[in-house]
């Protein structure tokens, strides 16, 4: 019933069918191999594949133009029947499947006999399948970690063979914060011992605190960290190091990255204080976490309209320079509230630093108190909707995923949790709509990540909900890791979508042949042969392991380990 409701809601915004026609089309290896589909634009041709084939995608008469190129021109696009590999050990049964009744099929691209096909692995139960995915994602974090400094890389190239042969260069400090939290998940899931996790966390924190010889992160005068550093030395790197486009000095220090990093630092300290209180390692983690937290003057976040840090400012900047300059500033909107974005962690820490411990409304720092009230007010007064769904933003799923898993002020608040679910429903509905003609069998997920230059004009993009003839000139990417990140919204439904993705095989990537560990990679509706596994951006793939972990650890794991201040 939920699927029908999503479909109905999504089509409410579509309106009348476009005035165009497609040549009648057939789908090989299906019941449509001779029975042609109709010719009306936006008409979906429903089909059923022959035994030994798997249906993939919706077959719809459509048009699509991006970057000045006509990609789909009055033609049926998007639905195929993919061949299953056949062998003596995996014979196709009469029901068209290759697994015994009760087993769970997981497929990935391969080749056999006459060409490309889907290789099937059969799992005995759901738990084994989801543990495989979680372990596969955690392998990425092990590969992304610089073992000399504990700093995590911004991205991996999963096409490299062997996959362990990654270039240890561009580290990302927000990603490093997530890495700390994920080491705690790995410990709780017994993917590593508590001692192993503690030793990893201690090295990372010592690097952050400037206690590792030969590694030093340059921070600005108020302690803000940069987004990207060399993971071997701590030297600045990446596109925030200069801002020539604006014709003025660069703004290399990022409030957003500092906030996400700090969220992970405190997550690790809280986790080990809850699970191993008083031990030598936990005391060291607590010392280092407090030192790193105190390095940053979060209560100096605010910025004036002339682009200067100001104690009575009303602007929330994204970046700052070595002194008092700030840029990419957000001020309250016309209704008096800020727009919600990924700086939620930073805003929270600013409020806690300035006002934590004071009764509500009695904070001596009135500017920070007002900022927090205007920030929190947005959740009670959303001004963005998709169909009937209220949203905090039209941007990618990580915008609500990362605060949900990393910020107690979000994951303990019933209104935010309702909006988290609303984002999931809107995401699903958007992909079901005529903007994408997808959404079925788990093929949705607004994400950020790698994309293709020819259809997006860039090689990295953050996707958003957008409709209309010129609203979505890109590759129509869909991100399964975003689907997994919504696990707490409706575990039964999201699990079913992930199982469908695994059975479909399109987004499945093996990251460890010895253990057969898998992940779900970003894909494109416009170019079905492209895979985002060539540039797996860690901040985006984090949603997969964070969401999957709640199957066993529950949402309470994140409620408890983000409750650092004890008064939320």
How does the SSE layout of this entry go?
Blueprint: H1 2-12, E1 44-45, E2 53-56, E3 59-66, E4 69-77, E5 80-83, E6 104-112, E7 115-123, H2 126-144, E8 155-156, E9 170-172, H3 173-188, H4 194-208, E10 228-230, E11 253-254, H5 255-275, H6 280-295, E12 316-320, E13 326-330, H7 344-355, H8 366-380, E14 384-386, E15 389-391, H9 398-406, H10 408-411, H11 414-432, E16 448-450, H12 453-456, E17 460-462, E18 477-478, H13 480-485, H14 491-504, E19 508-512, E20 517-520, E21 523-524, E22 536-537, H15 538-553, H16 556-561
Antiparallel strand pairs: 1-3, 2-5, 3-4, 6-7, 8-22, 9-10, 11-12, 12-13, 14-15, 16-17, 18-21, 19-20
Counting helices, strands and paired strands, the structural category is alpha+beta
Strand content: 15-25%
Net shape: globular
Could you tell me the mean pLDDT?
Answer: 89
Task: State the separation between the terminal residues, measured CA to CA.
Answer: 37 Å
Largest sheet properties: 3 strands, antiparallel
- Beta-strand segment tally: 22
Radius of gyration: 24 Å
Strand arrangement across the biggest beta sheet: 1-3-4
Tell me roughly what share of residues is in helical segments: 25-40%
Q: Provide a count of the helices.
A: 16
Q: Please mark out the parts with pLDDT under 50 across 5 or more consecutive residues, or reply none.
A: 1-18, 240-248
């Amino acid at each position: 019933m939920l699927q029908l409701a999503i479909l109905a809601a999504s089509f409410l915004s579509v309106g009348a069918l476009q005035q165009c026609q497609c040549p009648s089309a057939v789908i090989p290896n299906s019941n449509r191999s001779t029975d042609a589909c109709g010719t009306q634009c936006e008409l979906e041709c429903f089909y059923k594949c022959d035994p030994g084939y798997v249906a993939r995608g919706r077959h719809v008469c459509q048009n699509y133009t991006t970057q000045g190129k006509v990609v789909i021109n009055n033609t049926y696009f998007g639905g195929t029947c993919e061949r299953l590999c056949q062998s003596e050990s995996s014979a196709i049964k009469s029901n068209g499947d290759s697994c015994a009744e009760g087993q769970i099929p997981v497929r990935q691209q391969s080749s056999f006999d006459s060409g490309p096909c889907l290789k099937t692995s059969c799992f005995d139960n759901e738990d084994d399948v989801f543990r495989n995915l979680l372990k596969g994602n955690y392998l990425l974090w092990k590969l992304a970690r610089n073992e000399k400094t504990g700093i995590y890389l911004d991205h991996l190239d999963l096409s490299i063979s062997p996959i362990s042969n990654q270039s240890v260069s561009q580290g990302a400090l927000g990603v490093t914060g997530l890495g700390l939290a994920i080491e705690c998940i790995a410990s709780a899931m017994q993917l590593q011992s508590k001692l192993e996790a503690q030793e990893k966390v201690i090295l990372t924190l010592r690097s952050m605190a400037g206690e590792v010889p030969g590694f030093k992160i340059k921070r600005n005068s108020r302690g803000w960290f940069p987004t990207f550093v060399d993971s071997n030395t701590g030297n600045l790197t990446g596109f925030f190091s200069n801002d020539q486009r604006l014709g003025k000095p660069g703004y290399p220090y990022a409030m957003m990255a500092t906030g996400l990093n700090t969220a992970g630092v405190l997550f690790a300290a809280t986790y080990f204080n809850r699970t191993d209180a008083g031990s030598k390692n936990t005391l060291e983690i607590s010392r280092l976490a407090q030192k790193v937290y105190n390095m940053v003057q979060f209560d100096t976040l605010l910025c004036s309209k002339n682009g200067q840090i100001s104690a009575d400012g009303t602007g929330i900047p994204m970046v700052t320079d070595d002194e008092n300059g700030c840029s990419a500033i957000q001020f309250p909107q016309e209704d008096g509230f800020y727009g919600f974005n990924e700086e939620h962690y930073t805003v929270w820490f600013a409020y806690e630093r300035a006002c934590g411990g004071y009764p509500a409304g009695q904070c001596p720092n009135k500017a920070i108190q007002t900022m927090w009230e205007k920030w929190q007010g947005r959740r009670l007064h959303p001004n963005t909707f998709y169909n009937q769904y209220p949203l905090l933003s039209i941007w990618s799923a990580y915008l609500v995923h990362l605060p949900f898993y990393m910020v107690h002020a979000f994951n303990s608040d019933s209104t935010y949790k309702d909006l988290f679910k609303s984002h999931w429903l809107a995401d699903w509905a958007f992909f079901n709509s005529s903007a994408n003609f997808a959404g079925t069998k788990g093929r949705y997920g607004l994400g950020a990540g790698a994309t293709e230059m020819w259809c997006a004009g860039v090689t990295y993009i953050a996707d958003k909900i957008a409709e209309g003839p010129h609203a979505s000139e890109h590759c129509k990417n869909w991100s399964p890791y975003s689907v997994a990140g919504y696990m707490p919204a409706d575990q039964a439904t999201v699990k079913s979508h992930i199982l469908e993705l695994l059975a479909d095989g399109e987004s499945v990537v093996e990251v460890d042949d010895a253990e057969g560990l898998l992940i779900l990679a970003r894909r494109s509706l416009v170019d079905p042969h492209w895979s985002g596994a060539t540039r797996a951006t860690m901040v985006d793939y984090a949603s997969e392991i964070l969401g999957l972990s709640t199957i066993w650890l529950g949402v309470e794991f994140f409620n408890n380990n983000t409750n650092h201040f004890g008064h939320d």
